[in-house]
Amino acid sequence: MSIPDIVRHPPFNITRASHVRYFVRDLDESLRFYTEVLGFVLSDLEDGIAYLRGIEESCHHSVVLMQDPARAGTAECIGMRVASEDDIAVAQAHVRGAGGTAEIVERPHQGLSLMTTFGKGTPPVELCASMPVLPRMLNNFVAQKGGRVLRLDHYQCAVPDVPSTVAKFMALGFRPSKYTLDEETRQVLSIFLSRKNNPHDLVLAGAMGPRLHHVAFVVSDLQAMLRAADIAANLGYGREVEHGPGRHGPPNGMFLYFRDPDGHRIEFILPPMQYIDPEDKPNVWESTDGVSLVPWGGGPPQRWREEMTRFDGHEAAGGPLARWTSLTDPRQDRTP
Ligand SMILES: [Fe+2]
Question: For 183-189, which contacts have Cβ atoms below 8 Å and span 24 or more sequence positions?
Fold first, then answer.
């Protein structure tokens, strides 16, 4: 597969990854984990729904936790911001014209919002034009807890057909910052797609999908990761510190993965590098070139490779799961 050309003037303007909507079993327990361990700030709590933001975020929420035992452990959608309400109207026509679905939805604490799907096997994406603004808590040190999470950065989703999904999102202006090729087939196994000024808003990897592997949030430093892990242990979530701390390969991101009380996976990362200029080409790796994408340590546990959040109402199917596992640690993919 060749990567499609970059679309510099997309039909509407997606600006960044914005918010995730999770279903949870016990909202009190989830709130304890998100505020005390990870360090989110509670923006609003009403009707069994909690709205949370990181301490650097001024827009109302980046995480929505919805108490619903029947759907606990699933997600409703991932969210993206668009630049204006005009973009919502254009998006609705464009997505429908491309064979997807696009319905205006009423959301508390959000401006004009549009729930979209881009066809079978792709993650549902809610586009949002605006949110109320609340105080940033960055300099409110008294209010800061746990890992002092700063802001949402990206999603990683598993999809059964990477090439077709890449084409759909690149048609909307997403730009690749790096991708991994199967050494033999030259198929794209995973790709980092960006709309904002760093390497990732949406990571796509080939596996049974659509499923949400993780949502990544930026923290200030390693100490914030370690503090969150220590508090997780204090509160009985020590075994839910799933993988890391460790270092991904380029672009040198340090990481630590947690599982929340419903199994949703949260990644903490350090502030990513910039990725802005159009002549800055994506990095390309081959899956079996011997360069591990985790340069030290033992690689992720099996549950990290296999367990993911499903999207409510979206059947997950297909996908080369075995190949995807090699993306994190190519050693797993070699014939003994
Ligand atoms: Fe990530």
Answer: 183/286, 183/287, 183/288, 183/289, 184/288, 186/1, 187/1, 187/162, 187/163, 188/1, 188/3, 188/162, 188/163, 189/162, 189/287, 189/320, 189/323, 189/324, 189/326, 189/327
Whole-number Å distance, alpha carbon 76 to ligand 1 midpoint, is 19
Peptide linkage before 251 cis (omega within 30 of 0): yes
Whole-number Å distance, alpha carbon 46 to ligand 1 midpoint, is 30
Q: Average the pLDDT over 279-305 and give the result.
A: 76
- Identify the CA nearest to 205 among candidates 247, 268, 160, 172: 160
Domains present along the chain, CATH in parentheses: 14-132+145-333 (3.10.180.10)
Distance CA 13, CA 173 (A): 8
Q: Which of 140, 136, 141, 92 lies closest to 118, judged by CA?
A: 92
Cα dihedral 282, 285, 287, 289 in deg (nearest 10): 180
Give 213-261 pLDDT, tens digit per residue.
999 999 999 999 999 999 999 999 999 999 999 988 766 689 999 999 9
CA of 84 to the centre of ligand 1 (A): 27
pTM (2 decimals)?
0.94
> Residue 288 CA to chain centroid, in angstroms?
25
Q: Which helix (H) or strand (E) holds 152?
A: strand 151-159
327 alpha carbon – ligand 1 mean position (Å): 12
Q: How many residues does the chain have?
A: 336
267 Cβ partners below 8 Å, 6+ apart? 156, 214, 215, 216, 217, 255, 256, 257, 258
At 26-73, the pLDDT tens digits run: 999 999 999 999 999 999 999 999 999 999 999 999 999 999 999 999
Distances (CA, A) of 171 to 111, 132, 164, 213, 299: 25, 29, 11, 23, 34
